[in-house]
Amino acid sequence: METFKISELAKEFDITTRSIRFYEDMGLIEPQRKGNMRIYARRDKTRLKLILRGKRLGFSLAEIKELFALYDMDQSDNQLFKMLNIIDEKEAVLKRQLEDISIVLGELSTARERCKEALRLSQSKHT
């Protein structure tokens, strides 16, 4: 069975060992212990990857923990519906953010062109 040290995971994911211990304290990952040393399994590494991806997508740690809990349980229809609702809600938020980002990018582009035009006019007056 492949295992990992906390320092290896921290380096691979470019995060601090403190962050990894925090995720452990939150119950998101569960390394084995050998004395004071933490030994992480492939499952922990996969969960760490999902935690970081979830955070980038705007999921809170509580939401990530809930998704992990739903996934770990026997997946009854109710649990799967609950998981789908969480996913649908997050998808809707991300789509709204994407629309907002597109609008702001368009406004920035327009502002850039106005600034360039103003500079061209200003420079032509001085020549």
TrEMBL record:
Residues forming the HTH merR-type domain are 3-70
Q: So which domain of life are we looking at?
A: Bacteria
> Species name for this entry?
Vibrio japonicus
Q: Which Pfam families match?
A: MerR_1 (PF13411)
* KW DNA-binding (keyword) present: yes
Question: What are the entry keywords?
Answer: DNA-binding
Lineage start = Bacteria, Pseudomonadati, Pseudomonadota, Gammaproteobacteria, Vibrionales
**GO molecular function (one):** DNA binding
What InterPro entries does the entry give? Answer: DNA-bd_dom_put_sf (IPR009061), MerR-type_HTH_dom (IPR000551), MerR_fam (IPR047057)
CDD domains under this entry?
HTH_GnyR
PANTHER family hit by this protein: HTH-TYPE TRANSCRIPTIONAL REGULATOR YFMP, REDOX-CYCLING DRUG-SENSING TRANSCRIPTIONAL ACTIVATOR SOXR
Designated name of the protein: MerR family DNA-binding transcriptional regulator
